[in-house]
Amino acid sequence: MRDFSIENDALAAQVDDLRWPSARNNFWRALAHDPKTLRRTWESVKQVMAPGALEPKVKEMLYVAVSIAHGCTYCIHSHTANARAKGMTEDEYAEMIAIVGMAAETNRLVTALGVAVDDAFLVDPPQNSGPDF
Amino acid sequence: MRDFSIENDALAAQVDDLRWPSARNNFWRALAHDPKTLRRTWESVKQVMAPGALEPKVKEMLYVAVSIAHGCTYCIHSHTANARAKGMTEDEYAEMIAIVGMAAETNRLVTALGVAVDDAFLVDPPQNSGPDF
Amino acid sequence: MRDFSIENDALAAQVDDLRWPSARNNFWRALAHDPKTLRRTWESVKQVMAPGALEPKVKEMLYVAVSIAHGCTYCIHSHTANARAKGMTEDEYAEMIAIVGMAAETNRLVTALGVAVDDAFLVDPPQNSGPDF
Amino acid sequence: MRDFSIENDALAAQVDDLRWPSARNNFWRALAHDPKTLRRTWESVKQVMAPGALEPKVKEMLYVAVSIAHGCTYCIHSHTANARAKGMTEDEYAEMIAIVGMAAETNRLVTALGVAVDDAFLVDPPQNSGPDF
Amino acid sequence: MRDFSIENDALAAQVDDLRWPSARNNFWRALAHDPKTLRRTWESVKQVMAPGALEPKVKEMLYVAVSIAHGCTYCIHSHTANARAKGMTEDEYAEMIAIVGMAAETNRLVTALGVAVDDAFLVDPPQNSGPDF
Amino acid sequence: MRDFSIENDALAAQVDDLRWPSARNNFWRALAHDPKTLRRTWESVKQVMAPGALEPKVKEMLYVAVSIAHGCTYCIHSHTANARAKGMTEDEYAEMIAIVGMAAETNRLVTALGVAVDDAFLVDPPQNSGPDF
Fold it and tell me: Which chains touch C (3 or more CB pairs under 8 A)?
């Protein structure tokens, strides 16, 4: 069994080095078994969730929506808490839940029926190719 | 083989009855094989995506995020088009994609590590019980 | 924290209005936080699961099979209970479970191998287009 | 590149040995790169889909429902063709599709809301333990 | 309620017949409600996990990786235990977890962006067709 | 429509800056619409797939296995090509595919049956808690 106690100097050192006071939850602690993955994931989440074009609240709600689709109970709880802390109201929460359910239904209907993408939707598609170098 | 031509009076009638001029895309046409499911799904999507507490643009982005997680190419295209039509910028699109990817990664890390939900996240949990009647 | 007690008049009213004596389980109670979604989902499930071309028992078994694939423990339990109440025998239950497992295996094998759809399967395909209006 | 031509004696031999005249579709041919997996999968599918307590048509419909949830286009096509060959009507097909969509929606709503399993559903649960030997 | 006690002669007989002393865990016991599926699954797992070209440890790690993607907690636990018993080190475990997370992220990014397969990857593709007989 | 041509100086600059000669495939080019995500993802994949405790070939195979479970065709192709380039034989490929299919089957059987984790598997569980600081 590995030693996760605070007396484990190597672990304590890398945690101190990270300085993540607000992140002492079970997820980051579970990742502490692998300092490299802990640090990379921490830096990545910080970049992705940093203030940007989208409201912080909306960013957390997108995180929750994906976590529901992937069936991650922990992630649903933690990012719902985050979304609420960043201003999500109960009405917004209810609307988000309803959209996730509705999307799940039409996603499966579309897959079942093998619906071909309309040309109209391809006029300005998600960019799926880069520069021609 | 069923008859989906416009000469099919029963089908034409139910389509006219629905009056869905803006929805003549392949999804609704594919659902036309089942008028009851077509109507119910149409009414449900209308209710869920109607103006509410969340911006229409955000609603469409939540729809796209779930559709990516479920692997529905058609839905990704159609709701990305909708989101753009409702004002989603390229920067917002890029941030949304990044969040979906990041959530997928931590969702699976959490599942892999079997992380238990922190008590702190349960203070104001998603409501999972109703009145005690 | 929201008030879900029976003394909550608004909630009690909308529940009474729905008249869902047989549905006082945790799912519908959890949805009671959002009367609009509760009512729409209730009406939709009623339509979809109503007596039709398929036996009620078979309908519930299809619901269970999808719920297993989506990893929804609650749904597996509730619709298995429903299927049994509607006549599913233990042998039918065992056969259903075996099919779900088998399908999962060949689904992934097909995805892994990138198998192209045989022309023969396209002779009478799922309808993926509607009227040409 | 491996040799899948009929002149490949080893392959031809194992295929002849299997005697699968009705199964010369792309799936079984793709599996022919691995005779052991081909034979095991073939024997397993035969056992699972053999006449039993459930109607052959219902068995194929359960297969389709799971394949939709897993997003396997090939499997949706092949087992829909099978289901039709075994008597599935268009009305039954439409009802099945609607159930898959509905289940997807409530599956995700339940996951989102973290609904606890009702005691009533545990009275006669799926057997999750065996003999105490 | 079915009788899973050791006094159930039919069950005891089929279990004895299988002679699976090392497999008295909850999975095989749960499958004991269906002797035919129990035996087929047992024989299949034995074939798939038998010593072959891949190290036993690697085989178990592939099993764990898939189980994480499918959200099967039991399977994650049981096959992680197996992988450790067959020599997986903590460093290998950490690397595996990191790969599963990374793959989940790029899987979803690719789906989101609708990336087309490069011709270079098709030079020596997974075999998706068999002999032309 | 955004400009992905090589004449787009900003894009050309960030691509040059990255120096990713071996990575000029469609995935990285698709990500070029978002330089920040491109760079972060590139650095992350480099870290995760770098030489470590596991063989490079095994790392790629784990990537393929997860990509199959998530239904990402592009990722299956690209990482299968990588695995072959790093020494995966046809026999190893066949064994990997068989394991993915088998895991999918037992994953769903376990979920269907609600199998509880054996105590024995918890003796040396995946670490799900960190230091107690």
Answer: A, B, D, E, F
Question: A-side interface with F, Cβ within 8 Å?
Answer: 1-2, 4-6, 8, 11-12, 15, 24, 26, 28-33, 36, 40, 44, 47, 124, 127-133
Residue F118: which H helix or E strand, with range?
A: none
**Do residues E95 and F63 lie in contact, with contact meaning Cβ atoms separated by under 8 Å?**
no
Does the structure show a pLDDT above 60 at B43? yes
How many Cα neighbours within 13 Å face the side chain of C109?
29
**In this predicted structure, what is the pLDDT of residue C5?**
43
**pLDDT at residue A2 in the model:** 43
Residue indicated by tokens 């239950």: C93
Vertex B109, ends E98 and A63: CA angle to 5°? 125
Output the pLDDT for position F5.
42
**C54 DSSP 8-state letter:** S
Question: Mean pLDDT throughout E103-110?
Answer: 98
Q: Which chains touch A (3 or more CB pairs under 8 A)?
A: B, C, D, E, F
pLDDT at position B17, please? 57
Residue with tokens 């691995």: D34
Choosing among D4, D8, D14, which should be mutated to test the E contact, i.e. which has the most E CBs within 10 A? D4
> What distance in Å separates the CA atoms of residue A100 and residue B102, rounded to the nearest whole number?
18
Cβ neighbours, 10 Å, residue E92: 20
Cβ-based contacts of E100 with chain B (< 8 Å) = 108-109, 112
Q: What is the pTM of this model?
A: 0.87
What is the pLDDT averaged over residues A63-90?
A: 97
Q: How far is CA F44 from CA B105, E98, E108, in A?
A: 11, 10, 15
Contact B26, A118 (CB under 8 A): yes
Number of continuous H segments (helices) and E segments (strands) in chain C = 6, 0
Question: Above 0.90 for ipTM, yes or no?
Answer: no
Mean per-residue pLDDT, C22-50: 89
The predicted pLDDT at position D9 comes to 53
B71, B77, B108 member nearest E101 (Cβ): B108
Binding partners of B (≥3 Cβ pairs within 8 A): A, C, D, E, F
Question: E interface mutation test: which of F37, F39, F42, F54 has the most E CBs within 10 A?
Answer: F54
Q: Which of C99-108, D14-23, F15-24 has the highest mean pLDDT?
A: C99-108
The SS3 assignment for D45 reads helix
CA pair distance C50, F25, nearest whole angstrom: 51
Contacting D with CB below 8 Å, chain E residues are 1-2, 4-6, 8, 11-12, 15, 24, 26, 28-33, 36, 40, 44, 47, 124, 127-133
- Residue E105 and residue B101: Cα distance in Å, rounded? 4
Neighbouring residues of C116: CB distance < 8 A, sequence distance ≥ 6: D26, D74, E128, E129
